[in-house]
Fold:
Amino acid sequence: MVTQVAEQEQVVYERPRSLVDVPTHYCPGCTHGTAHRIIAEIIDELGIREQTILVASVGCSVFAYNYFDVDACEAAHGRAPAMATGVKRVSPDKFVFTYQGDGDLASIGAGEVIHVAARGEKITTIFINNAIYGMTGGQMAPTSLIGQKTTSSPFGRDSDLAGYPMQMAELLSVLPGTAYSVRRSLHDARHVIQAKKAIRIAFKAQLLGLGYSIVELLSSCPINWGMTPEESLKWVKEAMIPVYPLGDYKVADELKALTKKGRR
Amino acid sequence: MVTQVAEQEQVVYERPRSLVDVPTHYCPGCTHGTAHRIIAEIIDELGIREQTILVASVGCSVFAYNYFDVDACEAAHGRAPAMATGVKRVSPDKFVFTYQGDGDLASIGAGEVIHVAARGEKITTIFINNAIYGMTGGQMAPTSLIGQKTTSSPFGRDSDLAGYPMQMAELLSVLPGTAYSVRRSLHDARHVIQAKKAIRIAFKAQLLGLGYSIVELLSSCPINWGMTPEESLKWVKEAMIPVYPLGDYKVADELKALTKKGRR
Amino acid sequence: MPKQLLKGNIAIAEAAIRAGCEAYFGYPITPQTELLEHMSRRMIELDRVFLQAESEVAAVNMVYGAAVTGARAMTSSSSPGISLMQEGFSYIAGSEVPAVVVDIMRGGPGLGNIQPSQGDYNQVTKSAGHGDFHPIVLAPSNIQEAIDLTVLAFDLAEKYRTLVFMVADGAIGQMMEPAELPPMRPLQDRRPEWALTGAHSREKNKISSIYMGAEELEAFNLKLQEKLALIERIEIRYDEQYIDGAELVIVAFGTAARVAQSATMLMREAGLPVGLFRPITLWPFPERQLAQIAKKAKGILVVEMNAGQMLHDVRAAVGPDIPVAFLGRMGGSIPMPDEVEERARALLAQMREPENYLLQESGNGHPSR
Amino acid sequence: MPKQLLKGNIAIAEAAIRAGCEAYFGYPITPQTELLEHMSRRMIELDRVFLQAESEVAAVNMVYGAAVTGARAMTSSSSPGISLMQEGFSYIAGSEVPAVVVDIMRGGPGLGNIQPSQGDYNQVTKSAGHGDFHPIVLAPSNIQEAIDLTVLAFDLAEKYRTLVFMVADGAIGQMMEPAELPPMRPLQDRRPEWALTGAHSREKNKISSIYMGAEELEAFNLKLQEKLALIERIEIRYDEQYIDGAELVIVAFGTAARVAQSATMLMREAGLPVGLFRPITLWPFPERQLAQIAKKAKGILVVEMNAGQMLHDVRAAVGPDIPVAFLGRMGGSIPMPDEVEERARALLAQMREPENYLLQESGNGHPSR
Amino acid sequence: METSIIIAGFGGQGVLFAGQLLAYAGMKVGKHVTWIPSYGPEMRGGTANCTVIISDDVIGAPLVAQPDVAIALNSPSFEKYEPLVKEKGLLVVNSSIITEKSQRLDLETVYLPANSIAEEAGTIKMLNVAAIGAMLSRRPVLELEVVQATLVEHMSKKKAQLVEANLRVLKRGYEAGSLVAA
Amino acid sequence: METSIIIAGFGGQGVLFAGQLLAYAGMKVGKHVTWIPSYGPEMRGGTANCTVIISDDVIGAPLVAQPDVAIALNSPSFEKYEPLVKEKGLLVVNSSIITEKSQRLDLETVYLPANSIAEEAGTIKMLNVAAIGAMLSRRPVLELEVVQATLVEHMSKKKAQLVEANLRVLKRGYEAGSLVAA
Amino acid sequence: MAKGRIVIDVERCKGCELCREACPKDVLIIAEQLNSKGYRPAILLDPEHDCTGCALCAVVCPDGCITVYRNIVKKEARVHAQAVT
Amino acid sequence: MAKGRIVIDVERCKGCELCREACPKDVLIIAEQLNSKGYRPAILLDPEHDCTGCALCAVVCPDGCITVYRNIVKKEARVHAQAVT
Ligand SMILES: Cc1ncc(C[n+]2csc(CCOP(=O)(O)OP(=O)(O)O)c2C)c(N)n1
Ligand SMILES: Cc1ncc(C[n+]2csc(CCOP(=O)(O)OP(=O)(O)O)c2C)c(N)n1
Ligand code: SF4
Ligand code: SF4
Ligand code: SF4
Ligand code: SF4
Structure:
């Protein structure tokens, strides 16, 4: 369906250079893909592709290292922050980021992420909170909502037995080594744009050597939620945001300026 | 040196029943001993000795199970909260507490303690913060102070390389499953008495089934700090308290009453 | 109970429940997850303990906690998760409490993949953690056996106050077969007297794996070794098929044994002198039994879904006098019956002209393909 | 360099530094801690990377992270910590990056104690994690050798892009002996081309242990097994003493070998035909070399500080034709030379009246005392 | 006698249920059966498949390199399994969405417009049942009646109202199968 | 010739340094030496000890069941090691704080008031050096001069001003050792 | 003449319909025929040439299938900026 | 006659001196001779019978070596209460 391109036309949106030109394995409508795209857009924009090292994690994003056109490795489940610490400590001039799901970061990896924040490791984490374990087929995550039915909480999450949703952006903001900790959502265009802004600032936090930065992104899992992509985004907006308020929980003074004046 | 006891005399202080009558292996002046004593006093006072199960941890308190006259087990390093979860889940009618050092709880065991707090496990933790690894001979702990010289931070803890002191009482108070999270100190009689008050409330929190309770106790390590017992308590007061402010960080409403009116 | 069409993971979970499992702690991992999922429903319905732990490290230590109170506790995982549980296993062994662990093995090393494998043989039989101990390791090769061995696992764990593993590969975890579940057992009405139940009108109980003095720890280890020796004497289990007159004996366990069985049947029908020896306890390994059989045979073919791990135990058992060949598939590939038959026929041929034999024998444990 | 009186842990740390170690990540644990402590001073002085990790799990994954960038990285721990690193080891093996690990073994299982032990033999040689792989395992028996093997460890790790262990017991970690340190090597000036250094004017590099398809993962495993086979062919190291004319050959490694050596010397002086065979690489195990020696001897005595772990490899190597006895101490007890001598003399005597022999032979791997 | 059947298609095409239907039916008449799904990343988006073995005696491997029967419900499956089917084996092709044709002369091939048949006699979702019907017409491993009875027993209660439709689709698939020229 | 020496006492009594002093001295004159401390929980409060072996050829085990020499600086050490010393071995007892006497007739025993000697000639902390002196007087494994030289070399700089005192204490210990009746 | 135009990579499209949802002008529909992956891709249906090239569809597309073109008209530069920022 | 009196378990005492520090009346001193553990224990030196039985020494003793006795005098009950609470 290629059509003539008129002279005066200009491209106002296209796939970012830092995304490899292959189809992803993500389910239709899964916003993991959206997160990938905006991260790649920022890598392009900041011109750091050739100095970036991605530490992928274990979850549906396990193949992220195939999708980003940057040097990449694959950590053990939950250990991406530790692995990224190893990478960064011996390569301080590189830009190092982890991409982790909520099972990976909040459950098995809670200790490691707490400690990179406590140490103020100069790395960045993009944290995909979809309130469930996607890869393994929809079990309860520490981020699942009270009452949420999953394949391992068939009667709905009962706080008496399974505890309460973990608000990681808030928790990590308490630690002194954290330079930037915010929560955004991917449920519509406006929020995607805001998420992208936050990612830019988080990346800059590392480039400025300010410490640990993390952006929590509320994301969808249509398949395991048993919803259509459209219903999923509605659920993010109406069910998740009330439990996971969007906002800035820690912003180092050096970054305040950036958050203010718009796009750059 | 037994002397005649006059008729009208009364005993106003003696070793608690719940402490086994053996000498401890703790170094002279180490306030681990003080913590043991006041815990045992509360166990006696609440009359729960026969329903108590202690989950000891790995640290200088590794032999705590020899000192408390209660059923006890010994967890792997850092895993006391997980082990206590296993104990409590199958014995909901028992009183279960862990006794952990700062290396055990804040370093290797950070993930497990975060999760008992997130789940609101009905267990209690007595957390001994002595800003160092005692058992292994004085290495840096996540709680060591900036500039503190230890056998693994010979030039003093440098936050650029080794991060910042972790304030666990504050961190754990953020999690919804935590019913009670406070910090006390053992550096003088007045504070020991306050610490004992806090332990009483923490224990009641569990007995009332309110969720997870933890009392962080600032403690001394004369041997590894290279100080006399007396200097050590001074250091707790003057160096540690400024970094680890004493206070109540989370007190469930049901407990507010207890904190108010004095002793019982 | 009538037979039902049951999925391996679910059959094991339900069998554990009927065997009186009071507490399950686990963490999701393919290809084991349905086991945890079944527990998440049934244990809650039965008002028993189910908890999805934050990690495998936490899960095994929760099991340890439940076990010291004398409760029947279990966990399940797959290869990477089993690696994370090693310290916990060692503590459980060091404090002699009963516990049951199910390992539905997948392809390794590392993240590898989630396809069927037998790559954890050494990890579970030789070293489930630091220090000198062995868990009892049971290896079913069909769903019915998986059910029966699950029940046995709890009984052995309690009888010897030891760690018992049941290991199967992803294929057994994922497949469905008709099988019969055992009746529901009543839960134990009270806890053993060594257990932690509160020092109520008795001396306190202590459970730990610490023995600071070298002498005490050695004494404990000697006691532990005696127990293991006893288990080696009386708990060995294995299965034989077509062994009479078998010149070539195929040795395999789990899914590999099913495959070998198909091949063996076909070859026997074709009149070839082939038999099958299937260890059911991987530890203790049926060393003497296999040695006996080897005496009568002319050659051995070990078939595994790994690089040749049980192979070492087979070699040690049968000695150098009889040639041992190896057929191994790795990374989630399952050997096919014709593959086994082809190899077996070749070996039988070679037995007639032994001189070529050495050429054909696979190196020490490495797949010949 | 002149000889210095050096403590094992510190000698190993300093040797690693001089071998060009760029990054150390570890967690304190007795009897290994001085190694970490030395690193905490020297690495910082040299402006290299030292980081006390929050746990052994984190430490091994930090090493993994440093290793994928091509940096010379290492960690060290003791038994319980080594158990916690198993998943990480498996990932490192699965992605073929070089890394060095020091295990100063202590008494197990569980928390056990902190006294010298060789109880991790199986864990490091047979199964350092899930899946099919073996690290190279070096076992020094004195401080000088510990230094030399540390340097070798880094070279082998890089040469084969593999995991290399150096295992010693607490005695070697804690004792002081005169030894010579190697000269300081310059750090490598640039990273290998497979390493992650940023996709600058080249295609991106990917390092992972995932091979989703069974075929791919099997292909990888075959490649890995070939590499291991190569190592088995050319990297075997061992030491012999008084082997000529030895009727009884004592087999031991590490501290047990030192003890055996004292005993052997004394017995030789007394004119008894005793020799010592000391494996230096525990994996690959000097199977053929030992088999050769066994051919000429009448009996074997294996001495270990565990329940008889290397014993299995010795048995497999020498076969059933020669009797193999075992002397093992556990839980931190170190066998004493006279103990070994006593046992050896008894065995020599029995060799003259073989009929009693079997009675005397210790069961499979369990200490006879 | 042992028959191995591979059923493959997109995630949504009811591949696993179709396989279980056969396994349950086989069990009903006392045969040995195994059912094993492909599992794992294929779960995401891609294709799913399962292998069913129905046999008169004990079944060894639950998986086969070369199935006696392959039912391909989409093109990727056709491409993957068409070459693997045993000589003289049966290949059922969902011609509604698979345009390719098999070049193998050693196979018995049925081109079944499963989607349309299902849509006509029931709902498009039942295309899997249609394919099963067609297969049974060519390989009477099990009697149609047995499969029908099994269908009735095993359709989850909430789907009960769909049973009739499924039976119709099964029948039509069976008929179509026997008609369609090889 | 191989001599094994165990030195034991309270944590603060300089047991480990005393052992290293001998090891360094042995090394200085080209002998084979090993030094190994007790480590671990004894660290807490309790007693410490170390084993030194000085030999003309390669040393096997760094630990011995029965030492040639035992230097007991406190009662627990006396109780633990007095029975273990080899026949005809040497036992040095810090009589300043050890009241017990050895019942063994097969030993050479020196009761040395180490605390008082140290306090007189230097500071009480140097009691370990006094004991070494006494031992050397009975077991000339090493020349006194060598040990003196080693002491000078190895006393950490900041303690330099104490060297003289230590040398005095060493000498007095040596003299006392040769005087005190066995 | 439309202000904008989009090109959808139909082979990569998974038919999640999020772009259709996002489009303020309703110029996107889901095709009848499947692509080779078995999905029904989104396609541009723009009879009245309503596409403004606002790029909202591209912003929400999880699979980065959409390229957006627009005729340069001063006053719109801002819109665009904001849209892709 | 003193208001109070303490008994110290000298064999358990480790001579840390914390009780001496805590005592408002300075009636505790450290003994010259070592106990069997090699520690110099604290002992009660109370010539002027100054010990009030306030129990502060016992409250700070890490090793629970001190038992405190006091003559019952109404008005002091409160002090005690507060002291041990
Ligand atoms: C040690 C270990 N435990 C468990 C697993 C299985 N596993 C793979 S991904 C995953 C969780 C994925 O959920 P999440 O992190 O939320 O990411 P998502 O798939 O939802 O994007 C689990 C438990 C594993 N691979 N390794
Ligand atoms: C898995 C494991 N890692 C390390 C150790 C060694 N270790 C024993 S105690 C300890 C830390 C003790 O410090 P802390 O928890 O602060 O307690 P403290 O001794 O200061 O009271 C360590 C690292 C161990 N026993 N197990
Ligand atoms: S399972 Fe969920 S998280 Fe994973 S790719 Fe599919 S939709 Fe996305
Ligand atoms: S080392 Fe420190 S913490 Fe441990 S007992 Fe001694 S003083 Fe207490
Ligand atoms: S959002 Fe993208 S993937 Fe979804 S339908 Fe539109 S173009 Fe296709
Ligand atoms: S506080 Fe206790 S241990 Fe310390 S000196 Fe006083 S009585 Fe002794």
Observations:
- Chains G and D do not touch (no CB pair under 8 Å).
